[in-house]
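Person: Please work through this fold.
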Amino acid sequence: MFERLWEIDFFRGIAISMMVWFHFLWDLNYFEIINVSLYSGFWGLFQKATAGLFLFLIGVSLTLSYNRKKHGFSMRFLLRGARIFAWGLAITLFSVLFIPSDIIFFGILHLIGVSIILSIPFISGKRLPLLLGLFVVLLPLFFDYQSISLDFLVWAGFSSSPPSLDFAPVFPWFGAVLLGISAGNFLYSGGTPKFKLKNPGNKVVSFAGFLGKHSLFIYFIHQMVLFPLVFLFYKFF
């Protein structure tokens, strides 16, 4: 029986906390309660760091799942990816109903679902996911693929006018998942840690770990809770 790795849950809890905070600021901005430039400067870097950390940890977690139960992993990953993608479609429906001016076309949950399926050929590797991940992440520095406008490949990042809200296309964000797969296979070969880290066991670590254990569920519901609350504050205060 494999134990949960506290450090993965801890950092995943940090990532989901950062994401919830960023979306809370977005909600405040949307109702003009505050006026902050969220996609440039500090908050632009904050948003990219948050998404990158969250997706990197997805990659690490996929290697743990694979290494701890290799039998039937392809079907398991296919079903898991499809389920999370369906959660993403529910988020899309929520945005259509409540924020039609900013529809979430292909957000983090959509990307995670697709990434889990795309990761199947690379899940056991160290070098190939590293090289391919670096290629996907660094491609925008050398090639302006967004200048290629192909409607059927918007989800991959090939669009000159991509959706603005919670848009997480395969290029470059799948690269973060691939880098996580490479790191996971190096740091947790066989599903056990190469370097054992002592759990401090304090309340901050425990709370972050709790959030990390339920990070996908928190991501799925947090805007459904935050957005109406901010709307009520805007309406009555």
Remarks:
- The chain has a mean pLDDT of 91.
- Helices lie at 6-30, 41-68, 73-98, 108-118, 127-142, 170-187, 203-213, 215-236.
- The two ends are 52 Å apart (CA to CA).
